[in-house]
Amino acid sequence: MVAEPEAVVRLTRLKADLVADCSAMEARASEVEQLMDGWDKAGALGRPELALLAVNLHGWYTALETALERIARLLDQSAPEGGSWHVDLLAQMKIDVPGVRPAAVPEIVMPRLHELRKFRHFFRNAYVLDLDPAQVRERAADLLRVARPVATALSGLQIHVAATLAELTGIA
Q1: Distance separating alpha carbons of residues 116 and 142, to the nearest angstrom
Q2: Residue 58's domain spans which residues?
């Protein structure tokens, strides 16, 4: 019998959910990279491609925020609330919590993550979609710069969760 069944269930669920979240982020980053390659070759993107790029930026950040919120609720057992919860969540996740979890996002990428968060907010709340190509290009460049370091940090967290599960269950 497992000593802490609730913790095992919580960690098993988190482990599976993080795999799905990271897979979604990887797919969105890959599509952004392909669209940016097309933009570089063509010199411009048409409105449909620009909108698709914006959708993928939105999707990547949403998957990241979903993963971070899961980590906050299931590991930290405390997720920010209130009007600034999106900003507070990033601040919470850049901290290494000894004995609980490593940092889920590297400090160095925080300014770009905040720009992506603001873009996602704009995109999600836009009633008329007038995309500024220069802004979309900047945010796509931001995403391509942060995708690898964020994936690496989340991978480290997944390894931590797996190790903790193995410790709790005695199964490697």
Answers
A1: 7
A2: 5-169
Instruction: Please tell me whether the overall predicted TM-score, pTM, comes out greater than 0.90 for this model.
Output: yes
Number of folded domains in the chain? 1
* Residue corresponding to tokens 């990241």: 64
What separation in angstroms does the CA of 117 have from each of 7, 59, 65, 144, 171? Answer: 31, 11, 9, 14, 38
Structure tokens at 53: 């790029």
For the segment 20-58, what is each residue's pLDDT rounded down to a tens digit? 999 999 999 999 999 999 888 878 888 899 999 999 999
User: Nearest-5° angle of CA 68, CA 74, CA 75?
Assistant: 85
CA distance 18 to 12: 10
Q: What are phi and psi of 101, to 5 degrees?
A: -165, 155
